[in-house]
Specification:
CATH class of the largest domain in chain A: Alpha Beta
Number of helices of chain A: 12
Number of strands of chain A: 12
CATH superfamily of the largest domain in chain A: Response regulator
Oligomer: homodimer
Distance between the termini of chain A: 93 Å
DNA sequence: CTGTTAGCGCATTCAG
DNA sequence: CTGAATGCGCTAACAG
């Protein structure tokens, strides 16, 4: 008699319907039932319908843990972000989700709150799930984390920025170059005294600042006093505060680049409150091109990033490697960026 | 000889280090090794250190699937949101994450994109993981989804709003009442001709609109022409567009309530572009009190919701039920809300 | 196309 | 405090 022990429900079994129950009801062996669900074409139509009927009647729901244990495939992708309140990540996550969900993969999400130690702990925890793939933010994992990831044999995509030494695959763009380009653009438009305001100063903000500094050095106006950074979490309020701090001290500044749109918008709100005219009195530029950027008055000059596409591409890389067990054509993908000039920096210097 | 078959690595095994390997190396039985990891105080210190050493030397990472299968505990909480781009959800998710992560639980995230059919599919998929708990958004699950959830015996929390017929537990607030209160507040301040603009019109936007309508009926100014809704996804741009549509037609409107802050801000941006004065020419109110609300010029009157706390509370309810196997003191928790009056509706009618 | 056998890695009994 | 036996539910491998 084919049967599991559900007859005399043990305390261990949840009393749930198992594949064996389905098989029994359909009068087939468990493995046939299994195949009918995973590779329907391998099972005759007659048995298939019988099995499907049994599934529906019994309300069978597969047990994922058992499936994973037997097949060593979990259909889980782990995603590690430094933050969710930062509006860029939900967009990236959407791209990831929309690509993975249709392929039957689920997302295990974790949040480091921008703490590198947390990252190591989270990677360790997430690896216990044997995810079929992992997406991590940035390229600055510590040595232990890298080792863990490498040793896990799990496909990994580092996203948001590019590195010459990826753990595995890599999808992003150069924050340094993007920021550099933005500043050069302003310089070409005639700006000379340009400041930089950044918060949180995670690795990517850091590199955006470096891009700014590099551009300023190139035209020989490298003044560290024009740079103001802060370790606090980014916010509109903080943008306002830092703007006041810098602009009060250096009212001769012609433009200020902010490490992100939130800070920039916060500054613009402050200008609006104080009657400071943008761009006449001070020009302002952001980074990310969040959706409010072009709606502000004046509209905000910034750098546009294809966030959703970045998530999508990362997920595609992962799927490719999981399904084909081979690397995609290239291990690295540059999603690029675009400097978007708007009215917040439109000044006629002639 | 205690050993698993890793000596002659089969194609099924991943060749990974197992608990048996650790046990062998430490010279103990697998179960002792298991206990050393889960309930250290049950194992003598001598053996414990031996086992820990073995774990570190071998780089052992527990296999979650095996653990789940044996213990029928997954340490996974499934979370279903209708959207991530909507800024309210990342905040809620943060509250959930920050409560669950320290307790050793992981979050499996899914996104319905506001489609109810998707929800059923996702619930079905997520149930395969045997999550220890589930958090779903809203109270409008379809009959199948309810049945699935109920049948799963898994603790469930419905969040964002309140219902008299919860599936299990329920954490949220009354959108109807919150919106009603906001409108009453405006009415008490002297406003009579108040409009309503909503987008997407998911169940919660719907109920906010009902709250508005109810308040308007009470003072006998119920004019459906003053209501403009749209099924598109919410955005700043759409706020501007809908505002134009309504205000062009009814320039006698004194105030407009928007179903969320994004739309309201979009309208304010449009006003700023067109030189329409807020609140002198038209007053504007939002909903949610996102962080930009008080930074706008004028600052935005809105309804403040404790999003992070809502997520936290939902997670706590879940943990309570999982750990104690009993219901929390109450199955329902009202996180409440607060009407926040700011300058965008400050008009002197005297 | 279908079935048999065996085992994935761990934790729950129940014994000592 | 430690261990032996057993099974969680499913699927890979090999037959037939």
């Amino acid at each position: 008699m084919i049967s599991n022990k559900n007859n005399n429900i043990s305390s261990r079994s949840m009393g749930r319907v198992t594949l064996a129950d389905v098989a029994e009801k359909a009068g087939v062996s468990p493995i046939t039932a299994s195949r009918a669900l995973k590779n329907p074409q391998q099972v005759s139509e007659k048995l298939r319908t019988k099995i499907y009927d049994a599934v529906n009647e019994l309300g069978y729901i597969p047990n994922h843990a058992a499936r994973s244990l037997a097949s060593s495939e979990t259909k889980i992708i782990s995603v590690i972000f430094p933050s969710l309140s930062n509006a860029v990540f939900p967009d990236v996550l959407d791209g990831i989700h929309d690509t993975l969900a249709p392929a039957g993969y689920r997302i295990l999400l974790a949040n480091t709150h921008y703490e590198t130690d947390q990252e190591e702990i989270l990677v360790r925890t997430l690896l216990e799930q044997n995810p079929d793939g992992i997406i991590v933010t940035g390229i600055d994992q510590n040595e232990n984390t890298r080792k863990l990831l490498l040793g896990s044999k799990t496909p990994v995509v580092q996203i948001m920025e590019l590195t010459d030494f990826p753990i595995d695959m890599n999808v992003g763009f150069s924050h340094f170059q993007a920021s550099y380009d933005l500043v050069r653009h302003l310089q070409n438009a005639g700006y000379k005294k340009i400041g930089f305001i950044g918060a949180r100063m995670d690795p990517r903000s850091q590199r955006r600042m470096e891009g700014y500094k590099h551009a300023m050095q190139e035209i020989g106006i490298s003044n560290n006093d024009y740079v103001l950074t802060n370790q606090s979490h980014t916010s509109f309020k903080l943008g306002a505060k830092l703007f006041n701090q810098l602009f009060t001290q250096f009212s001769d500044l012609e433009a200020i680049c902010f490490s992100n749109d939130d800070l920039a918008a916060g500054a613009m709100f402050e200008c609006s409150r104080k009657g400071i005219r943008v761009p006449e009195d001070i020009s302002i530029a952001g980074f990310n091109d969040l959706d409010f950027a072009e709606e502000l008055t004046p509209s905000l000059t910034t750098v546009s990033i294809p966030l959703y596409e970045m998530g999508k591409k990362a997920a595609e890389y992962l799927l490719h490697k999981i399904v084909n067990r081979t690397n995609p054509d290239s291990l690295q993908y540059d999603v690029s960026y675009k400097v978007v000039e708007r009215k917040s920096t439109y000044t006629d210097f002639s």
